[in-house]
Amino acid sequence: MGAGLAGPLLAQGLVRAGFEVALYEREAAIDERSQGYRIHLDPEGVDALRDCLPPDLYDEVVATSGIPGSGVTILSPRLEVVQRIAAPVDGDEGPQHLSVDRVTLRRILLTGIKTGHATFDHYELLADGTVRVHFAGGGSAEADLLVGADGTHSRVRAQLLPDAEVVETGQFLIFGKTPLTPEARSLTPAASLDGFSVVAGADGRFMPLAGHRPRTGEPGYLMWVVGSRQPASAVDGSALRDTAARLVGDWHPDLAALVGLAHPATVHATTVRTAKPVPPWTTGPVTLIGDAVHTMVPAGIGAAVALRDAALLCAQVTSPASDLLDAVHAYEASMLEYGFAAVARSLRAGG
Fold first, then answer.
1. Is the pLDDT of residue 57 over 50?
2. Residue 202 shares a structural domain with residue 243
């Protein structure tokens, strides 16, 4: 359940190994303009893609990724460089880090995968050890294994782990993207075109900026996020864009100008949430991957950890050395350890 990133990658790996897989997503269609933000994948995410995808699809991911930047930069509200951290250099074995557009990556991951539009309602454990999924509005499907890949608000998690908590951090984010037109390029800090940068204020406000320049030669865009402790009451994209520009209005004027050049359809607001650690549960024919189990604050690691989940579960399930429940148990034991260690890292980075 869930066709974000981790669900489709798991499906790719299982189909490649000869398993029958059905992938269900509650969204009938997605507005690409609102889902096209740049995401960073570190080595564990890149390795997961390499392990699960057919070689031609992995090559397509690399070919459509962004031109790598040279590092991470902390900027002052006046756009002065405060700190610069050099990016690691790729080796002979291929890229260690990738900057990818989420819509492009998702499209590649869904290639050739059987998908259905359905909203999860509840599951039923059957006497033969399998599971039946019931969909909202009627209909059902049976399987040997149900995987909840349905994100932070996972309905599968709500039934499997009713005591699991996802809590608000008190931070609010407004996301947007600005096409890299000549005007936008002239306003964008050089460090934001050559890697990832964060403008850090002394009052809790912050503004990540990252240019996505596709290797394909397309113009690309600047992803920006305005973070603060102030909730955004607006819902409309244009009003949210105005709110974001106002929040950085006393910083360098180029920042508000860049926000003003964003298309309203790409501007959205969210609260920042984090999952509290959960103890191991009794393994059965239902499990979880990605944000459905270990939601974390944005810190540039969440997507890679979710993809790692998919690759690990795939490797365990397709291993001839154990039966299905043993494989799922081994996955869960490892995932809970590294997954919530990543949650802790994200909290330190986001603090």
1. yes
2. yes
